[in-house]
């Protein structure tokens, strides 16, 4: 596979709600891309204490120079803050600034900021426009695309939310240069996911190019982000509200969300928990006779190359099952899991051997 390094654009095809994903280096400086999607010259930029010092003024000042009134909302940084209290902080700021239905919310940050801002946009005044500017790899390849928004509940991750699509996703790959190595690895877990669930050629490419991806080689990063977003956009266009194929994007997530919940939000990064959960799904798929041992070894090897944790925490079978039972994919009281039939092929199923699952949970 070969990729271009210039700005590339994909579309999430949703009829009259179709929107573009712009990908490239230095796009934060292309203010015209934002202005084209503003219904009114007023925006509220939501960011956090880590990202705001790096990029907020770079986005806000050119907008002001273009005559846009900019409201700034700075939140604390971390998964533990993706809750109703912090959501109300956004509402409070919007109300205090007398933001109207024509005010566009701009999410500038990682997945937590994107989810919070998107849910605030979906619910403030019953819906205002919003734009995603994701600054982490995980948010660039996954959470910023597709319209899933929401907050965590103390008893479960992402239990409260809405499907609400952005007007635009603007991905500046240069923001990854300020990303800590651990956050980069966590994002790569979601990149690998696309290869595992539906794109075997991409998985092969990642095996060959992982060292370059970890080193943030520009061409490799742009290629990985583009191919990931392409996969996500195709799935979302076919199944916006997760009635079928889109659920496959949750490979490793049922296990992973249980880990995040049990350990305390933010102790394990989302991508780290998903990586461990994906390995657990691979182990169960092997026990079911669906994956070959060599496939599992390849999966372990690529996560190792991405410097991701290999060993899930020993929560005990009962705690795992209890927390997994809170998953949104549970149907008729049965935990449904995304499992592997091969690299590049996955299935959502409740038809697995429960004893085999219990063995997986004792890893």
Can you give keywords for this protein?
seven-stranded mixed β-sheet, single chain, Dehydroquinate synthase-like, alpha domain, two-stranded antiparallel sheet, Rossmann fold, 363 residues, alpha/beta, globular
Q: What do you see in this structure?
A:
The protein has 363 residues and is an alpha/beta fold. It has 2 domains: 8-178, Rossmann fold (3-Layer(aba) Sandwich); 181-360, Dehydroquinate synthase-like, alpha domain, CATH 1.20.1090. The chain contains 13 helices and 11 strands. It has helices at residues 31-35, 52-65, 84-96, 111-123, 137-143, 181-198, 200-214, 218-238, 253-263, 270-287, 293-305, 317-324, 354-360, and strands spanning 8-12, 19-24, 42-48, 69-75, 104-109, 130-134, 148-153, 156-163, 168-172, 337-342, 345-349. α3 (84-96) crosses α4, α6 (181-198) runs antiparallel to α7 (200-214) and α6 packs across α8. The longest helix is centred in the middle third of the chain and has 21 residues, at 218-238. It is globular and about 60 Å long. The mean pLDDT is 95.
| CATH architectural designation of the largest domain | Up-down Bundle
Q: Per the principal axes of the C-alpha atoms, what is the gross shape?
A: globular
Summarize the amount of helix as a percent range: 40-55%
Largest sheet: 7 strands, mixed
Radius of gyration computed on alpha carbons: 20 Å
Give the strand content: 15-25%
The CATH homologous superfamily of the largest domain: Dehydroquinate synthase-like - alpha domain
């Amino acid at each position: 596979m070969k990729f271009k390094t210039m700005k590339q654009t994909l579309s999430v095809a949703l009829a009259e709600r179709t929107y573009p994903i712009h990908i490239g280096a230095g796009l934060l400086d292309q203010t015209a891309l934002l202005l084209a999607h503003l219904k009114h010259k007023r925006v509220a930029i939501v960011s956090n204490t880590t990202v705001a010092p790096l990029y907020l003024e770079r986005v806000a000042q050119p907008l002001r120079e273009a005559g846009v009134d900019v409201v700034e909302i700075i939140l604390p940084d971390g998964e533990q803050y993706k809750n109703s209290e912090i959501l109300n902080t956004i509402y409070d700021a919007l109300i205090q600034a007398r933001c109207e239905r024509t005010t566009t919310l701009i999410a500038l940050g990682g997945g937590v900021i994107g989810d919070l801002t998107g849910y605030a946009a979906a619910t403030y005044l019953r819906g205002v426009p919003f734009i995603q500017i994701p600054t982490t790899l995980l948010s660039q390849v996954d959470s910023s695309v597709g319209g899933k928004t929401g907050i965590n509940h103390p008893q479960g991750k992402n239990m409260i939310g809405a499907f609400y699509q952005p007007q635009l996703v603007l991905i500046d790959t240069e923001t990854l240069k300020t990303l800590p190595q651990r956050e980069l690895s966590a994002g790569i877990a979601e990149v690998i996911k696309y290869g595992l669930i539906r794109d075997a050629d991409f998985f092969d490419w990642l095996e060959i190019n992982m060292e370059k991806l970890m080193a943030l080689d520009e061409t490799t990063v742009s290629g990985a982000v583009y191919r990931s977003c392409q996969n996500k956009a195709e799935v979302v266009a076919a199944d916006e509200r997760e009635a079928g194929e889109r659920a496959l994007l949750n490979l490793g997530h049922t296990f992973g969300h249980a880990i995040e919940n049990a350990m305390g939000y933010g102790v394990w990064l989302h991508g780290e928990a998903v990586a461990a959960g994906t390995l657990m799904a691979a182990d169960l798929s092997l026990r079911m006779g669906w994956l070959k041992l060599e496939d599992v070894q390849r999966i372990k090897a690529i996560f190792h190359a991405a410097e991701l944790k290999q060993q899930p925490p020993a929560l005990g079978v009962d705690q795992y099952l209890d927390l997994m039972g809170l998953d949104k994919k549970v149907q008729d009281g049965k935990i449904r899991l995304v499992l592997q039939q091969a690299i590049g092929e996955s299935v959502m199923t409740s038809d697995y051997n429960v004893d085999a699952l219990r063995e997986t949970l004792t890893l």
